[in-house]
Write a structure and sequence with these properties.
Radius of gyration: 16 Å
Number of strands: 3
CATH topology: Arc Repressor Mutant, subunit A
Strand order of the largest sheet: 1-3-2
Structural class: alpha+beta
Number of helices: 4
Shape: elongated
CATH class: Mainly Alpha
CATH superfamily: Winged helix-like DNA-binding domain superfamily/Winged helix DNA-binding domain
Order of helices and strands: HEHHEEH
Length: 82
């Protein structure tokens, strides 16, 4: 999610290589995010080779933003405690 939040779209290969995941593991994660409505997947061809790209949906952007806000709150609370 964080990689997709920082880019308009990423290919399956870019995600796999950056995250150092297996194809099967990444596919499982993408399917889960897709079923949740957080990620949109498009399939096309580039130079006669299959190309799968992923983008965050509006719901995914909102969920990720909420998650980051939650983490920021936890950090602020921890800083006040010290």
């Amino acid at each position: 999610m964080s990689m997709l939040a920082g880019s308009s779209k990423l290919s399956f290969t870019q995600l796999r290589n950056s995250l150092k995941m297996t194809d099967g593991n990444l596919t499982t994660h993408i399917r889960t995010l897709q079923k949740s409505g957080y990620v949109a997947v498009s399939k096309s061809f580039n130079e006669n080779r299959p190309l799968t790209t992923c983008t965050l949906t509006a719901s995914g952007i909102r969920a990720f933003s909420d998650y980051v806000s939650l983490l920021e709150g936890i950090v602020k609370q921890a800083q006040r405690s010290n």
